[in-house]
Amino acid sequence: MSKNAEIKDLNYYLNWLESSIDDENIKLYEYSNFKNIHPIGRGSYGNVYSVNCEVYNRVFALKSFVDSNNKQTIRKILKELKLHRSVDYHENIIRLYGITNEEFDTIQKYSFVLEYADSGTLTTYLKEHFNELDWTDKYKLASQLASAIDFLHRGNIIHRDLHGKNILIHQKNIKLADFGLSKKISEASSNTSVLGVIPYVDPKSFDDKEKYKLNKKSDVYSVGVLLWQISSGHIPFHEDDYGPRLMLSILNGRREKIIDGTPVKYSNLYTECWRDEPNKRPNIQEITSTLKSINSLIEIDAIIDHIDRKKETHSTEVEIDPELSKKTIDLNNEMQIIPNDGLNISSDSNKEIRGSTNEIISKGESNNIMKYENRMTPSESPSNASTSEQVNQVTKTSYDFIEFLNLDKIIAYVIEKHDKGATFDQAQQLISEHILQINQATDKLIKWLLKNQDKTQHIWFLGLFYYYNIGVEENVVKAFELFSKAADDNYPIAQVYLAKCYYDGYGTKFNLSLAFYWYQKSAENGSVVGQFYLGNFYEFGIAIVENENKSFCWYDTAAKNGNNTAKLYLAHCYRLGKGVEKDEVIAFKYYKSLAKQENADAQLQVGNCFYYGIGTKIDKIQAKCWYEKATNNGNIIAKNILKKYYKVKVRVEIDKSKKIKFYKILFHKSLSQLGFYCVGKLLLKTNYEKSFHYFQKAAENGCKFAQFNLGGCYQLGDGVRKDLRKSFELYKKSAEQGYINAQSQLIYCYGYGFGTGIDSIKAFELAKIIAEKGYNDAQYLLGEYYVYGKGVDKDEKKAFELFNELAKDTKYFVSGKKEIKINKQREFEYSKIFAKNINIHLKYVLGNCYNKGVGTEVNKTKAFELYKMAAEEGSSFAQNSLGLLYEYGEGTEMNLKIAFYWYNKAAENGNKLAQYNLGVFYENGRGVEKNDAKAFEYYQKSADQGYLNALPRLGYCYEYGEGTDKKLEKAFYWYNTASKDGNKVAQYNLGNCYKNGRGVEKNEAKAFEYYQKSADQEYLDALLQLGYCYEFGQGTEKNLKRAFYWYNKAAKDGNKIAQYNLGNCYKNGRGVEKNEAKAFEYYKESADQEYLNALLQLGYCYEYGKGTEKNLEKAFDWYNKAARNGNKTAQYNLGNCYKNGRGVEKNEAKAFEYYKESADQGYLNAQLRLGNCYKKGVGTEVDKTKAFELYKLAAEKGNGFAQNRLGSLYQYGKGTEKCLEKAFYWYNKAAESGNKTGLYNVGECYELGNGVNKDLIKAFEYNKKSAENGHISAKFQLGYYHVNGIGTEIDKEKGFELYNEAAGSNIQVDTIENDEELVNDLDKVNYWYHKATENDNEFALFKLGNFYELGKGICENKVRAFEFYKKSANQGFIEAQYKLGYFYENGIGTDINKEMAFNTYKIAALEGDVNAQKSLAYLYEQGEGTDKNVENAIYWYRKALENGCSDAQVNLDVLLVQKK
């Protein structure tokens, strides 16, 4: 690469870096703010320093680069920078804060500003602190290392250079560093030098360096070695020299020995990692899972270990089932009864979580804690100090207490319970019980947490106290801030709680998109409960397009990781066929397995399975048994089923010894409940705070009516802060006591996720029960569940029946103008609040039924009527649907303006589909004036609500700058977002981004991958692109048959470009047998759709009779049609038609016009042809300058013909100054491109020394190449060289053979007296070349000069003519002498030389040549080439006149007059 190219590339990378800094994508630190710079390390591209930053009052690490202005280095910098930015938010990966630069003599020296690790490398840390580490510490390091690598691998990044010196330690935690050699997996993973790190490198790379590419399993090998290093404290093979001998021994199977005392599971793990065959090594997820299970087993010995061994404790050992860490679930094992692990998960149960407290703290320990607290001195008591003093006075005693409590293990226990399926409220119960056990220690614990916020887990745990109102006043904002801080540090469980805050609008604005984002982050970071909730979002389409396959996948992942709630949802998926093939038998097995663990919801489902024969035989006795179990565990649906189907009255059994006491207080309690409730009801109209107070009192005493009303207060925020979570819990308590209104509320809570997670199964079951009791709103909801198959198998007919029956009730199917007024302060029930919506929605859903034929026949007119009624009442869905009917004229006349009106109304009401439709109308000017900015605005609104089709449109706006600034990175972001959810248009556009490097680094393999995904969904443009990929081997191996397959597939669906490409396949026999008739057929189909290239090809077919009869008139018509549409090739062809009169009357002016149109569009052939027109005056005036400009333009684009013509203009100084050197340059360029005339001209330049040193051998070589390419003049000239031994040995026979070959005939020269006997000019040339061999026949040489001068039978060549005239003149041929003088005088084939002209004219004149006499007289007259001499001029004019030149008379008379 040239120096200029290198500088250009370097500037490109530097500009990217500077623009990223300018856009604040990368933070720039001022170098002058860094002080106390000390070197701490060295790498292949630079050094590492520790620095103090005055502005931020902290220590950073600077990683400098030796030569920041070297292209290779700057590319490495940018690559590492991009990788760092994509991964450094993991808590165990070193943070990249930004970049700094220092200027040396105008040269920028760049450095990374990195997080400083205070304990150096892992190797150094283990060397200095190994004796201080126990196995808990070692497991922590191992787990953090695995977690960091897991994070990289999930992002498809391989580190490729893992060893003890680029893993750092900060605050006793792993910090993965050095991404200089890391790569995205899609990049070529070429191997690197292993010197100095041999033991850590995948030995497979030793065996086959050229072919083996480092991969994820290579990182796993390195992790295995590092796990061994953590267990031993020193580097592997520390007694050996790191060289070829060690490399060979490792390659032959040598590994380090297991250190005595290493736990078996740990050593088994790392020995599995360093196995020879990569496919036998575990993946990183299996490593993290195994380490997690081993770590759990260590913690279980005593979840609260007394670190101070002098204290005596009575811990309870808990056994954790190691099978939870297995990759898959064995259903047969799951069917066994699993021992109670202290967590009875029942989402409908309000019972205690049995045994959980004793797992953490036994009674003995609790007493010890009480005694410990009682030994505190008065000065240590929280009551004797202010809050700030308490926070600042965390004494040694409190540290001892926290150490005694072993807080981190309590945190781990809470997370474990969450991961197994504990709900947020059950987590609150867990924490509350533990805090109650340690009594007044709560204050001490909170103070300690307030002071110790340096660890992420403690930040999150403090947030729980504010979130659950434990020991502190509830502070939703504080809880949110703490969760947010811990989540930003990549703490998975904090990300789960942050998502929950966004979902509930708790401490922040309600934001489902951010809720989804944080659940997704937590799931990707390994949170099992996060995986479950992510599945929930995908199942119900919360802030993301509903995706049952992804939902099932995440439930499956969480279930395999031991989450029982996920197993329940997985069972639902199998029962209903959601995201997986329907399999009721598997569903039943899951339900039964969970039911045996006392899961009330599963027990209900087992009852249903037996009752309806789902996955098992019908057995109503068994069903009753399981319904009773579910009821006993608090399931209200089971309780209602027992009442309905078995007429069972469910009562709570009370111990006989308590009955008397119970009856004594019952009467007083009931009065108390009723009194508080009635007072609350009375105050509800006037004083919400007091009303809330009395409802709360009555609710605490168990009054179901008060609980219900109190739930309403929390729902609406009347007299208390709005809290849907508490509202739900109160409704549930009231519902469990059989209050029908509360049960009705729960339908909405479960159906829409108000205060709890969405559970469509429960919502359906409750709706079914309550609908059967005559509640119309429940009947409506039941219909919706049947329409969409939510919580039940889809049944459109059943849905229509329910809606139609409900419509007959005039209360619900009222006029569109009538409103149902709701007083939300008095009527908070969802069923009443939504009464108006149900009325409206009923019309909308019935309209849908008629519009789409759901459960009934399609009737667009009825659909229109129903949509219109609902739309006028404010239903945004109906308004959008009404807009669609107006847009397409279905059920009414088409009217785009009215369609726009209704889309606008729906968009104003927040309907995302209508916002998208409005964007389309503004973009295309349908029903409204075109407005790209408005279109963008509405696409943005729709996309913000997660509407999938809006995402690629938003990407398109950013890609092409329509309605907003052009931003390719944002375009890529939106395409990528939509693509993840399966949008085929976005997948196609993403393919284009990767193909063309728009907004992302160019990657043809990725482009092919996304085209394939889009094509799999039958997206036409993607089918076409896939054909291109296979045809030209872009992103995949070239495969013409596959290309033909995809073109054919797209062509069948009417894609005009595919039809055209299919025509090309048949025309050229690419991927299919050649068939011109078929080619013509597909060109015709494509042309009928106005595809320009097809119009052109059809013209070509008619012009040359390809696949059809030759028809020049039709050819002209198709060229004309394509030309009118701007096709530059067609315009050129049309020019040819007019020039040559093919299919149309010859018209050079028209030809010129079309050549110009085509040339203006950059068509090279047209530029060349236009140059010819200007050169020769075809259809326009001669203009050598314009000819020169056009030839130059085409020549610079690589056109060999133009290069040759340009050389000719430089040679003869036409349209530009004469320059033989430039002429040679362009002839040579033409020759390099294979142009045969260019080769011939280069040979001539070497022969004559024009613009280059004379070299007859090279002249011969170039003429030979030209002749081999069929150039006739070159063949004659080559023959001449052979005959005369020019640049080669004399070989007359070869020369004659070439003459005949050039002429295409075998001339018998001896039998021909003169060339008049020959008709063909080419034969005449051949004849005279033959004659020229006869003793340098001067006349033959003259004749050859004549042929070249006039271009008769051979290409016109003035230079060659001049040479032949010169040779003839040198032989004394008088006419040649005259011609030579004429060429010298006028600069034809040589430079103007008047003296030489005078001399040669004089020789010929003296020999009696009349033309020479006249020309000589003229030179004397003008004084050109000689002194002016009128007497001599008169003399020679008279001689010419005497010899018959009458023209000389005029000149003679003029001179005679002047002389007098």
The first-to-last residue Cα distance is: 76 Å
Mean pLDDT over the residues: 80
So what's the CATH class of the domain at 122-300? Answer: Mainly Alpha
% residues in beta strands: under 5%
How is the largest sheet built, in terms of strand order?
1-5-6-4-3-2
> How large, in whole angstroms, is the Cα Rg?
46 Å
Summing up helix and strand content along with how strands pair, one would put the structural category as mainly alpha
- Tell me the overall shape: elongated
Would you count the extended β strands for me?
A: 10
Could you say what the CATH topology of the domain at 122-300 is called?
A: Transferase(Phosphotransferase), domain 1
By CATH, the superfamily of the domain at 122-300 comes out as Transferase(Phosphotransferase) domain 1
